[in-house]
Amino acid sequence: EMGGYPHYMLKEIHEQGGVCRATIKGRVHDGKVDLSGELAMDEETIKGFKAIHIVACGTSYYASLIAERVFERWTDLDIKVDIASEYRYRDSKISPDTLVVFVSQSGETADTLAAQRKARESGAYSLAVTNVQGSTLARSCDDFLLLKAGPEIGVAATKTFMGQITSLYLLALYIAKIKGTLSDQKQKELTDEMIQLAYKIETILEREPSIEDLAWKFADYKNFLFLGRGMSFPVALEGALKLKEISYIHAEAYAAGEMKHGPIALIDPNVPVVVVAPKDSLYEKTLSNIQEAKARHAPIIAVGFDGDERLASDADHVLYVPSTLEEFSPFVTVVPLQLFAYHVAKKRGCEIDKPRNLAKSVTVE
Ligand code: M6R
Question: In what residue span(s) does the SIS domain sit (predicted)?
């Protein structure tokens, strides 16, 4: 049932192109996203939304942080993203014209369910973005949007993260269409690129042997620092979480611009720095962070776009991914980080699909 793969996690990483494709299928027509046949919310309801809150835990929270950056770029909504175990106890203003989106693979995470009860009491419209149609979350929200990831067995979320970002991007494009905040031409440009992502993801999977080689070189380090800016900051968070969860190596992620505000003190030849550095509008800034880390003799692993030779002259190792529009870079940059974590854990002989102390769904607080 693992389809020839030694672990579910590896199988699920390899399914991600398919997940992206399946999640988009039937939802894009003539350069526009259409979710009207499946969402309960109608156009009037959508036009009335002034704010959006996205609430989740763990990897689902990192997917939400990525979505935050496109919601603020593509729509006119005021956006807030929070961890469910914080949101439920905070005093954020949730009004009836707020759309509250709960992102949960399982739909059974205790804190996410509690946060949903709070939103419901405030009269806001709640939407579940989940992989499980019959889940408690899907049943308690006013509305739901399904990721088409299929069951995920590995405790470390991989393909559901891909399904989540795909679904959240579709939601952002759909809301933008109805609210008229993106031109037809821009919608077409974005949806055309979105359709290409599955192929790009599959190209990265073919490069697995070189990622495995690199993972073997780095499997004995005790601490890692992950850095990224903009769209790549949540990707750094997710890359560090994958490494922590399955290989038990301490990995911290920071917004690259925060390096000087503390973490730079940690850098020395024993702390590899993984930098997510796609060629986007913040690229030059990220490159200067690479140089700062290099000056302190940290081994540098960069994730960058194909053809970016400058990166190769600054970093010790580069994991190349096909280039895409700035907004979509997480779809490609996250994949080598998942594979890196997987192969480090495998080299260390860890129990990859069932890491210690972790459960697939966290149904207690
Ligand atoms: O089922 P959920 O999406 O609500 O789960 C949230 C987190 O527990 C989950 O993403 C966790 O962080 C994973 N182990 C990450 O790999």
Answer: 41-181, 214-355
Helices (H), the chain: 8-14, 16-24, 43-48, 58-74, 84-87, 110-121, 136-140, 159-179, 184-205, 208-218, 232-247, 283-295, 309-314, 329-347
For residue 45, give both structure tokens: 């309801």
Residue 361 has pLDDT above 90, yes or no: no
Residue type, 301: I
Q: Give the integer Cα–Cα distance in Å for 241 and 83.
A: 15
Instruction: Return the pLDDT at 359.
Output: 86
Positions marked catalytic = 360
Q: Say if CB 190 and CB 325 are below 8 A apart.
A: yes
Asked if residues 129 and 163 have their Cβ atoms less than 8 Å apart, the reply is no
Q: How far is the CA of 126 from the centre of ligand 1 (A)?
A: 20
Percentage of the chain exceeding pLDDT 90: 95
Task: Kindly state if the Cβ of 112 falls inside 6 Å of ligand 1.
Answer: yes
Amino acid of residue 192: D
**Is the distance from the beta carbon of residue 157 to the nearest atom of ligand 1 less than 6 Å?**
yes
